[in-house]
Design a protein that fits this description.
single chain; mainly alpha; two-stranded antiparallel ribbon; 69% helix; globular
C-alpha cells in the first residue's frame, strides 16, 4: 500500500493529463445530464478510491454556467466531465479518501414550466389578429400571419409565460413549422453586427468588474467629491460618466461598482445615494452610444427603417450632450430637495475612499492591460468611420486584446449567459421585424397612422410629443428596456416618420427616451432591480421618484433638448 501511494504521487501529473483528455460523452434527456459512455478508469492511478459520481443538471442560468457549456461553446462538449476527471486525478495524486474524491452531486430542480394564463393571453392575441381581424387588401396572407405571430411573441415578452429566450424559441419554431418563414429567414439576424456588438460589449463590462478598475475609478471620485452628501452624489454621477464609455451595461455598473461603493458609506446616506444614482444613471446611459446596450439596438432598427447616420457615435454625442448634462446636473439636487438624505455632511467618505484606494495599491497588471485594450476599442469607435473599421470590428479587436493578454478568459465569456440569451432572442425579434418590413407590414402601418394624424389635423410636433409620451408610459408594462425596444421602437419610429418628424431627430430622441424610463419602477430595467434589491428604498418611494423625475426629464429634454437640436440642425 505504501509503495502504491508513492507511485500515485510520482505519477500525479500523468494522471491529470490522462483525465483531462478522457472526456465521456453525455446525452441530455428530461432535464438530466446522464452518462451514456462507459465508465473509464485512470490508467495506473484509477482505483476504487477514485470513483466518479454521476452528474446531474440544474435548470436555470446559473446551472448552465456551472455544468453544461454545450450551448455556449458551440462544440457540444460537456465541460463538467473534464473538470470532474481533473478532480479525480488530483485526488489520486494526493491520496484523498474516497469520500473526498467523489464529486458532489447536484440536485435536480424541476422547472415549473409554462405559466398558463400569460401563455393563453399571448396566444389569443395572435389568434384574434389572424382569424378575427380582416387582412388588408394590400398585404399577403403570409404577411398577416407573420404579424399575428409577432404580436403573440411581443405579448409574451411582456407577460412572460416562459423566460424570454424560451418564448422566442417557441415562436420561431412555430413560424418555421407553419411555413410563414423559412429557416434561413427566421435566423438571418444572427449575423446582425449590432447584436454581436452587444454581446462583446457585455464582456467588456465583465472585464471592469473582474479587474476591479471600476471600483478604483468610483473610489477616486468619492475621494474628490465626498465631503458632503450632495457633492458625493455628483462624484458618483461623474464616476458613472467616466466608466460608461467602456462599460456599456447600466446593470453591471450598478451591481458591480456603485452598490458595493455605496454600501461602504454612511448608512444614513445610502437611501438618497442609491435613489439618485438610479435616476441619474438613466441620463448617463444616454450621453454616449456606448453607454448602454440598448442604444446600439435603437440605431440598428432605425437604419432598417431608412434613417441614415453618417457617424452614429459622433451624432449621438452631439445630440445628447447638452440636455443630458443638464439632466445629470439637476437630478441629484432635485432629489436632494424632495427626498433629502438623513445626514448631509459626510467628512468620513473621502477618508474611507482614500483608505480603500491605498489598500488597493497601484494599478495591477490586469488593470493596465484592460485600459490599453479598451482604449484601443474606444478610439476605433470614435474614429472608425474614417479608418474603415466598423463598430463591431472595433469591439472584436478590443476583445481579442483582452483575451490574448489574459484579462479575460474564454470561460469568462461563456459565463455571460445574459449576453448569449440576448443574442438568441433579439436576433429572432429583429429577424421578424425585418421580414415584416420586407413584406410591407411596416409601410401599411405607417400609411394608416399617417392618415389618422392627417385627419386629426396634428402637426408633426404635436404627433412627436404624443408618441413620445405614449412610448414612455407603455413601459409600465415592461420589465426590460431591450424588450421594449424590440417590441415598440420600430412601430413608434415608423409612426413618427409617417407624421413628418425628421428621421434623425425621431430615431435619436426615441433612443434617449428608452434610457429615461429605466428608473420609473422597481422592475423597469436591470439596474432598477439591482438598486431596489439593495434594500434602501421603499417600493412606494421608488415609484414616486420615478414619476417626478420622469416629469423633470421630459421638461429638460423637451425644452432644452428641442432648442439644442434646432441649433445643431436636427429639425
Amino acid at each position: 500500500i505504501t509503495l502504491w501511494r508513492y507511485s500515485l504521487r510520482k505519477r500525479g501529473k500523468m494522471a491529470s493529463s490522462i483525465a483531462s483528455s478522457n472526456l465521456s460523452t453525455f446525452s441530455v434527456a428530461d432535464g438530466i445530464v446522464q452518462k451514456s459512455a462507459r465508465q473509464q478508469t485512470l490508467r495506473g492511478a484509477a482505483k476504487p478510491t477514485c470513483r466518479a459520481a454521476p452528474l446531474r443538471a440544474v435548470s436555470g442560468r446559473s446551472s448552465a454556467r456551472a455544468s453544461v457549456t454545450s450551448g455556449a461553446n458551440w462544440g457540444g462538449q460537456i465541460k463538467a466531465a473534464s473538470l470532474r476527471n481533473r478532480h479525480i486525478a488530483k485526488a489520486a495524486s494526493e491520496d484523498e479518501p474516497a469520500a473526498e474524491a467523489e464529486a458532489a452531486e447536484v440536485e435536480v430542480v424541476e422547472s415549473s414550466g409554462v405559466a398558463i394564463v400569460p401563455a393563453v393571453i399571448s396566444i389569443a392575441v395572435g389568434l384574434v389578429t389572424k382569424f378575427l381581424v380582416p387582412c388588408p387588401a394590400t398585404l399577403t396572407a403570409q404577411a398577416w400571419s407573420l404579424l399575428a405571430i409577432f404580436l403573440s411573441t411581443v405579448t409574451g415578452l411582456v407577460l412572460k409565460p416562459l423566460p424570454v429566450g424560451a418564448w422566442a424559441f417557441l415562436s420561431v419554431t412555430f413560424t418555421i413549422l407553419t411555413g410563414t418563414l423559412s429557416f434561413g429567414n427566421a435566423f438571418a439576424a444572427l449575423t446582425n453586427e449590432v447584436i454581436w456588438l452587444i454581446v462583446v460589449a457585455t464582456f467588456f463590462a465583465r472585464a471592469f468588474v473582474k479587474t476591479g478598475f471600476g471600483d478604483r475609478l468610483a473610489l477616486f471620485f468619492v475621494k474628490l467629491f465626498g465631503k458632503n452628501t450632495l457633492s458625493l452624489a455628483y462624484g458618483l454621477q461623474a464616476a458613472e460618466m467616466a466608466i460608461c464609455p467602456a462599460m456599456p451595461s447600466t446593470t453591471a455598473r450598478a451591481g458591480g461598482v456603485f452598490v458595493p461603493i455605496i454600501n461602504s458609506l454612511d448608512k444614513r446616506t445610502r437611501s438618497y445615494l442609491i435613489a439618485q444614482q438610479l435616476q441619474g444613471g438613466n441620463n448617463t446611459s444616454s450621453i454616449l452610444l456606448t453607454a448602454a446596450a440598448q442604444n446600439f439596438l435603437c440605431i440598428k432598427l432605425a437604419e432598417e427603417l431608412g434613417v441614415v447616420f453618417t457617424n452614429p457615435f459622433n451624432q449621438w454625442f452631439m445630440a445628447a450632450s447638452v440636455p443630458c448634462l443638464l439632466a445629470i446636473a439637476a437630478t441629484p439636487y432635485i432629489m436632494y430637495l424632495v427626498d433629502p438624505p438623513e445626514v448631509k455632511d459626510t467628512p468620513e467618505a473621502p477618508i474611507k475612499a482614500a483608505e480603500m484606494l491605498k489598500a488597493k495599491g497601484g494599478l495591477t497588471s490586469l488593470e493596465t492591460k484592460m485600459i490599453a485594450g479598451l482604449g484601443v476599442t474606444v478610439a476605433l469607435w470614435v474614429f472608425g468611420a474614417q479608418l474603415g473599421v466598423s463598430a463591431v470590428l472595433a469591439a472584436m479587436i478590443g476583445m481579442s486584446i483582452l483575451l490574448t493578454t489574459g484579462v479575460l478568459t474564454w470561460n469568462d465569456a461563456l459565463e455571460e449567459s445574459g449576453a448569449w440569451d440576448t443574442l438568441f432572442w433579439f436576433a429572432i425579434l429583429i429577424g421578424m421585424s425585418a421580414q415584416l418590413n420586407a413584406l410591407g407590414v411596416v409601410s401599411w402601418l405607417s400609411a394608416s397612422v399617417s392618415s389618422i394624424l392627417t385627419a386629426a389635423n396634428l402637426g408633426w410636433m404635436s404627433a412627436f410629443a404624443c408618441l413620445h409620451l405614449g412610448y414612455y408610459m407603455l413601459h409600465y408594462l415592461f420589465a426590460s428596456q431591450t424588450a421594449h425596444v424590440g417590441a415598440l421602437f420600430g412601430a413608434f419610429l415608423g409612426m413618427m416618420l409617417a407624421a413628418g418628424v425628421p428621421g434623425t431627430l425621431a430615431a435619436l430622441t426615441l433612443a434617449f427616451n428608452t434610457n429615461l424610463f429605466g428608473g420609473m419602477t422597481h422592475f423597469a430595467s436591470g439596474q432598477s432591480a439591482v438598486y431596489f434589491g439593495a434594500g434602501y428604498i421603499e417600493l412606494s418611494t421608488l415609484w414616486k421618484q420615478g414619476a417626478y423625475m420622469g416629469v423633470v426629464n421630459f421638461l429638460i429634454w423637451g425644452i432644452a433638448g428641442m432648442a439644442w437640436w434646432k441649433v445643431i440642425g436636427l429639425w
